[in-house]
Every structure is written in C-alpha cells, then in structure tokens.
Design goal:
Elements: E1 18-22, H1 26-32, E2 56-63, E3 67-72, H2 75-102, H3 105-109, H4 116-127, H5 129-136, H6 142-161, H7 182-192, H8 198-206, E4 237-243, E5 254-262, E6 269-276, E7 280-287, E8 295-297, E9 301-307, E10 313-321, E11 324-330, E12 333-336, E13 338-347, E14 353-362, E15 368-369, E16 381-387, H9 395-403, H10 408-417, E17 424-430, E18 435-438, H11 448-461, H12 463-472, E19 476-478, E20 506-509, E21 512-515, H13 545-555, H14 571-578, H15 584-597, E22 602-607, E23 610-615, H16 617-625, H17 637-645, E24 659-661, E25 673-675, H18 685-699, H19 708-711, E26 712-714, E27 722-723, E28 737-738, E29 769-770, E30 773-775, E31 777-784, E32 787-794, H20 809-815, E33 820-821, H21 826-831, E34 835-841
Parallel strand pairs: 1-34, 3-6, 10-19, 26-29
Antiparallel strand pairs: 2-3, 2-34, 4-5, 4-21, 5-30, 5-31, 6-7, 7-8, 8-9, 9-17, 10-11, 10-16, 11-12, 13-14, 15-16, 17-18, 18-20, 22-23, 24-25, 26-27, 28-30, 31-32, 32-33
Length: about 850
C-alpha cells in the first residue's frame, strides 16, 4: 500500500464535495511509501506494530476560491494544518524569506545585480534576527510555541514530500526550498515587524563603508541601485472603518477592511479560517508565513488595520572626530563605532562557492547607514538609526491574542499587555456595537526639548532634516547630543525608550472610527485626538484627498449619499461605498476645469527647451461627459488623473497650485477647495496642465476617449490584461491601485510584472497603468443575531502558483466588482462544496 498526498482540486471552483483522510504519521508515511504492496491472501504478521499516536491532527477544508478552513485538535495541530496548506499556496515566497533572514541568499542566488543579494546578506547578518529569535523562543507563550512548532512541521511536510522538480513556479527545481525551524519562523516575524523601519534600510546598511575604503566590493550595493522610502508615502496604505450601533442598520458592529498592500512578494496576505474547538475560531487574512489572522473577526470582535503615519525609528547624524572615520563625537567626548566582521558565502557565476568577509559598523543607536547622495558617510559625518521594532518578538503573540479575544475588554487588554503591534492603526467593532481606534505602534519617546529642536529643524533651521522629512517622511536628529536619546517612561512600555501604551492615541465611540493613513488626529472628526507627540503623527495638518473621501462617505447624510437619508449603513451600502470609486479631487475640481476649458482649442506652452502646441478640445469634451468615477468603463478618468498629477502637491494636503482656497485646520475636511482662478494676464496654468496631460497620453499612444479599464490593468496572467478599477493618490478615491516595488522578495521567488517607461507622475507608462499594488483583501462584515456575516474578495487571489486555479480567479472577481460570501459558521462551511483532507504527523 502507498500513501499519497491529496492535491487541491485541479480545475478550480465550483468544487465537488470530497473528503480524504490521511492519518499516518509523517515518518510512517514516508517509510510506507517504499514498502512492498501486500496481497489480500497473505497471512497477517504474528504481532501488530505498536500504533503511532500522531502529535498533530488537522482538517483542511478548501471551499470556493481555495479558501482553507483549518481545524486542529490543539494549537500545534492548527499550526500543522496552516503550515501545510500555506505551503501549497506560497512555498516559494516563505522559503526565500527564511533564506533572506538567515543571510544566505548569495549562497544560492549569487551576489545579485548591483550586489543586492550579498548586500542583503551582510545587513541581515548584522541585525542577527535568528539569535534574537532563539533567545526569545523559550519565553513565548506555550500556545504560541506549539503553534510555531506545528506550523514548521506542516510546512516541512509539504517540502519533504514534494520533489524539487514538482515545486511550483518560480521555485521549480531550486536548491533553496528547505525545511525550516520554529525559530526560523520567529526570526522572520521579527523581520516582518521591521517593515516600517530597518526593512527600508537593509541596503542602506549594506552600503555603509568608511570613506577610506570606498565602495564597489562584493556586498556593497552600487549607488542608484536602491532607494529608501516610507511605504505609506507611496506604495502601502489602507482604509479602515469600524461602525458602531449608531451608524449601522442592524444596531451592531460593522467593519470594512481595505488594506492597500503589494500584490506580489512577501507582504501579500493569505486568507484562512482557523479553529481549535473551544479555544479559537477566527477568520481573516494574515501576513505570509505568520500563523495568525492580522485582519478579520471572531464571534465577538472584528478589526482591521491601516499603516501608521508615525515614526518607528529615528535617524541620527553623527559628527566624526578628525582623522577617525569610525569615531564619533558625543556630549563633548568620543565614542568608537563597533566593528563586526561578517563572512557570507557567495555563489560565483560558474557555480563554485566562495567566502566573502566585510567589516560592518554600528553605533550605540544601531547600524551605520549610507543613502548615496543624501546621507553619505564622509570624513566629517556618518549616519545611523535606532529601530523601535528591532526587539519586537511579540508580533505573533499580539495577533494570536487578538484572534482569541472573547470580548472587547480582552481584545484591548492584548494591546496593553503584549504591545506587539508593529506598524498599524487599529479600527475595531464588537458584536454589541461599540467601536475603538488606537495607534498603539511602538513610537520613540523623545524629550520635549528634542521635539522642539526637531520642529525648528524641519521648518527651515536645518535644510537636511527638512529634506529628509519631506522626501522620506523620516526624522533626523543630532546624534552627538544625549538630549535626543529615547526616554524611558515611568509607565511600562514593551521596551525602554518607547511611548507607553497608557499614552498612545485611543478613542472609544458608538458611531464610527476610521483611518486612511493620515494621523490619529481625525479618527472621528467629531472628537479630534490632540496633544500627542509628533512622533505619533501630525495634528492640525492637511488631510489627503483619500482621507477626505473616506470621511465624506462615512458622514454624508442625504438621499443619494453612501448611507442614504437616515445615515445608517447596511452591509450592501458598505460594499458599494468602499468600491464606489468616487474621486474627491474630481468632486472638488472637475466642474471648474470644464468651465475653464470649454471653447478652448490649441494651448501653447514651453517644456524645457521645447515649445509645444496641444489641442485640448477633445479632452475637455470627454471631461464634461465623464461620470466622475474611476470605474473600468469610466471615460475621462485617465485625462483627469493626468491633469491632476501635473501639479506637484496640487491635489494633496495643503493645496498646492490647483486650489483657490488653501487648507484651514479649523475646517480640515472641506479645505483646500475650488479651482484656482485664471490669472488676469499671461498664461492660464490650469489649461497648460490640461495640455500637458493630453501630451502625456499622446506620447503613451492612449486616446483621451479611452475607458479606464482599457488603460489600467493587471498583467498577473501572462498574455492577459485584466481590467482594474480604482484610483491613485492623485485621484482621491478610497479604492487605490497602482504600481509598487515595496517588497524584499528575490526575483527568483516572485518576479515583478514589467511596468514600462514611466511618462508621468501618476504612473502612466508606455504600457498604460500597470497594477501590482493596492486594494488587496476587501471585506465588509457585520455582526448579526445569527453571528458574523460578510463578503470579501482577495484581489490577487489565494495562490502564488501560476498553474493554480486560485492564481487569478479573484482578480477577475475584483475586476468586475464581484464579492464572494465569507463562510464562517459550521453550517455554512459544511454545506459548501469543498476539497477536504485530514492530515496527521509527528
């Protein structure tokens, strides 16, 4: 007899009900695979072997679109089922990430273009996350240790029984898909927690070499080969709504989740339903390789997250001692940098392996960094940083505690007692119709004097600090002055130097709370949160058009408004609102633009040394007839987007050059507004901007009368352009899509779709608007008398395997604005067609 692993249904949905039970232990299963088949007429052996009681037993039931409902007899078994089911969908990505955190990419992939893989290895070896994980693992809660151990075992089972040649693309036949340990997982989770801090600076760490040595060696990324950018400033964002009994038709809690995250790489989300009877029953999405739900709900509480605009780290400028490029000044004295020799293995082009050693440098704050052309290590100064999440080993414990919460009080206590939230705001609602907001992210606790000095610096006193904050959204301090050290508060924080939980922004309501990546300030505009450190975010500052659209959708009360004339939402109204694709910038500016361009034809302007004449009449007619939305069939959306993007800052927080009425902090959701008037004499810049928009589209070969879906698409499936609706930050839509590179996945693990030559600030390329980022897991749910009910769509689908039926099925749903039901109750899951297996092992 032979044991084989049941594969997911090969043809996709709808599934036929099928159940396979596989209860052999892993070791027994492997040995039996090589056993001789026994005939029925053979005599049984004299004695039966002692049966093996499996350590783990889990049931995996995949319903429509491949969503796994995983039930384990205990936490270890739940992890076992998760690890196995997850590997079926994303084995390549997690294997690559473990390789990254171990600092072993160059050993298998070579040094990489521009020495990027070798550089990553050196930087991660300096951070030494595996050592942090190994030291922390024994202190983790017992149920979490069991979960991680089971997850690693389940993942390893998939790897052990899948020959390399049978692994999915893009890791078919590679040597770097290997078994992992629970400590590997925990080290990777620490790395995930660095997404808003050290993660951004990995190659800046690798690029840091003393000025006498120069660059160009293996493991030193070439200048221009990498960039540093706060994720939420460009590529990562989210909308999160929690509605209470005063805003919901049913009088209970409701949640809308709409994280804007990458569609490829390790920051994708994986959807699952996780159950240990009597212990935990939670549904939602988690970060890849993290065995817990990040965004979702259980029977009592529902929650979502958005990327916080606060600071997870501070940068420091260090004046150096003359003639000593590794010695810095500090409070009138001198301090030596710590030199750490690190050796990595590098695969050479002909296939042999060589050792490469570099000396890496750190200060008492953290690693030394170089951002070529911005923060360079010279004989006069060096730069370093301190990271609030580098010691955060509680990320998974945090999410597991939230997943298991039996009440709102328990849910909040996890925030207070674990303090493992890495970089997100939280919006939550309970079944009784209460809602809660917090930005409980780890935040540097600075003295008032340090904050005052920094404020002075970024308002003109220090051009470098100003540039770093404006361009990168990061805080740069004087590292030679102890005044700028993080302070330990009398109240308890997870780690010394952080703002304690008692002093982070929090808000309880019964109507709504929301966030769209601006600060905590207007989580509910009826009760602004004030008086917090600017390290948490800015108060009295201009709000993005997307924040303003979120607030408009939630707060408008009129017959044609999102929640109708009574101002209370049904779940259908929530679904329609979050994907309405209404444009705040269009609602503010389109009518004025049409009035201005009507009757105008040729507009002449100078671009650089070239004078151009552009006929804007057809574009003006298109804008007049445009529905004002960013749906796939909307004609005019591409013209308006290109118009808005020609004005730097024009559609953003403080007004720029497009608005007549500037931002007013006393009226933050209604200002800026009104199209700037035409000048009394000279060129009309508004018409010139429209001409520039038409010219950009002409250079891209795109007619002004093209519908958005003809231009904006996902190339996820080779040879197919899946039309995608939604806007960009210039458009002020809630639903945001675009192109991003925020990932650290090796190209060998998750190749990036080609974008083409960029022709405009809005991301227009010679291939149109290529989408690989944005709205990801979209969920609208509510608590009812029958329990939680909701619908969702995972825009990039459940699997990373191009051959899987679950690779692009939901991408097509999203293209058509189709939702699918969330199956949560036992009856719903049992009634659905499914592929089911039961696996067990030791």
């Amino acid at each position: 007899m032979k044991s084989t692993s049941p594969a997911p249904h090969p043809r996709g949905v709808p599934l036929q009900s099928r159940s396979t039970r596989w209860q052999l232990s892993l070791l027994a299963g492997l040995s039996l695979a090589f056993a001789t088949a026994c005939g029925d007429d053979e005599d049984p052996p004299d004695t039966d072997p002692t049966p093996t009681t499996p350590t783990y037993e889990a049931k995996i039931r995949r319903t429509a679109h491949g969503i796994p409902h995983i039930t384990g007899k205990d936490m270890g078994s739940l992890g076992y089922g998760q690890g196995y089911a997850f590997a079926q969908n994303h084995v390549c990505i997690l294997a690559d990430q473990i390789l990254k955190v171990r600092g072993e990419r160059a050993r298998y992939l070579g040094q990489g273009a521009g020495s990027l893989y070798a550089g990553s290895d050196f930087a991660y070896r300096l951070l030494d996350l595996p050592a942090k994980a190994k030291a922390s693992f024994p202190t983790q809660p017992d149920d979490l240790k069991a979960l991680l151990t089971g997850y690693a075992a389940g993942f390893n089972r998939y790897v052990s029984e899948t020959p390399a040649a049978n692994l999915p693309k893009p890791c078919t036949g590679v040597a770097w898909v290997k078994p992992i340990t629970p400590e590997d997982l925990l080290a990777y989770h620490i790395s995930v927690g660095l997404a808003a801090s050290s993660y951004q600076l990995i190659l800046a760490i690798a690029a840091a070499t003393p000025p006498a040595t120069g660059g160009g060696s293996v493991g030193v990324p070439a200048p221009g080969s990498f960039k540093v950018m706060r994720p939420e400033m460009s590529q990562v964002g989210s909308n999160g709504w929690a509605l209470g009994k005063d805003k919901s038709e049913g009088g209970r809690g409701m949640v809308v989740a709409n994280p804007h995250f990458p569609w490829e790489g390790e920051l994708k989300l994986w959807e699952s339903h996780l159950t240990v009877p009597g212990v935990m029953n939670v549904y939602g999405v988690g970060l890849l390789g993290v065995p817990a739900v990040l965004i979702g709900f259980n029977e009592n509480v529902a929650w979502t997250h958005t990327f916080s605009s606060g600071q997870r780290m501070t940068l420091y400028k260090l004046p150096l001692v003359a003639g000593k490029p590794t010695t810095y000044k500090y409070d009138g004295g001198e301090r030596e940098m710590t030199a750490t020799p690190i050796t990595i293995q590098v695969k050479l082009p002909e296939g042999s392996i060589t050792n490469v050693t570099r000396t890496m440098y750190s200060t008492h704050y953290g690693p030394v960094i170089t951002i070529p052309g911005q923060l360079d290590w010279t004989t006069q100064q060096a730069y370093t940083f301190r990271d609030a999440n580098l010691q955060n080993t509680a990320l998974t414990a945090q999410f597991l505690g939230m997943d298991r919460a039996k009440s709102f009080a328990e849910f909040k206590d996890v925030y207070k007692n674990v303090q493992g939230i890495p970089w997100v705001n939280t919006m939550a609602a309970d079944k009784d119709g209460n809602v809660w907001y917090t930005d409980a992210t780890p935040t540097p606790n600075l003295k008032a004097e340090a904050i005052q000095a920094w404020r002075a610096g970024v308002t003109g006193a220090d051009p470098l600090s100003t540039a770093i904050f404006q361009r990168l959204g990061l805080v740069l301090l004087d590292g030679s002055n102890s005044q700028n050290e993080w302070q330990t508060d009398a109240d308890t924080a997870r780690s010394p130097g952080l703002v304690p939980y008692s002093k982070v922004p929090k808000l309880d309501r019964t109507d709504f709370v929301f966030n769209a990546n601006d600060s905590y300030w207007l989580a509910n505009p009826n009760q602004p949160l004030t008086g917090f450190s600017p390290m948490h975010g800015l108060e009295n500052s201009g709000q993005s058009p997307r924040t303003r659209m979120n607030a408009e959708l939630l707060m408008e009360v009129r017959a044609d408004g999102a929640s109708g004339p009574e101002g209370k939402f049904s779940r259908t109204e929530l679904e329609n609102a979050i994907l309405s694709n209404r444009s705040m910038t269009a609602e503010l500016l389109r009518d004025g633009l049409v009035e201005r361009c009507t009757g105008k034809t040729n507009i002449t302007y100078t671009s650089g040394t070239t004078t151009k004449t552009v006929d804007i009449s057809a574009a003006c007619t298109v804008l007049k007839n445009w529905d004002g939305l960013y749906n796939t069939n909307s004609v005019g959306a591409v013209v308006f987007r290109e118009f808005a993007s020609t004005a730097p800052g024009g559609t953003h927080t403080n007004g720029g050059t497009l608005y007549a009425v500037p931002f007013d902090p006393t009226n933050p959701l209604k200002t800026p507004n009104t199209l700037a008037p035409a000048p009394a004499t000279g060129d009309d810049t508004v018409l010139i901007r429209l001409a520039q928009a038409v010219d950009a589209l002409t250079r891209a070969g795109i007619g002004v009368n093209k519908a958005l879906g003809e231009v904006q698409y996902s190339p996820r499936v080779t040879g197919e352009r899946i039309p995608i609706h939604g806007g960009t930050p210039f458009d002020g839509t809630a639903n945001v899509v675009g192109y991003g590179t925020f990932k650290s996945t090796a190209e060998e693990a998750a190749p990036t779709a080609a974008q083409g030559t960029v022709l405009s600030q809005a991301g227009l390329t010679s291939n149109g608007y290529v989408v690989n980022n944005g709205s990801s897991f979209i969920m609208a749910m509510e608590f009812t008398d029958q329990g939680p009910k909701g619908r969702a769509v995972l825009t990039y689908s459940e699997s990373s395997d191009p051959a899987s039926p679950y690779f692009a099925d939901q991408t097509r749903l999203f293209s058509n604005k189709e939702w699918r039901p969330i199956l949560f109750s036992d009856a719903e899951v049992a009634a659905a067609p499914a592929e089911e297996i039961t696996i067990s092992g030791n």
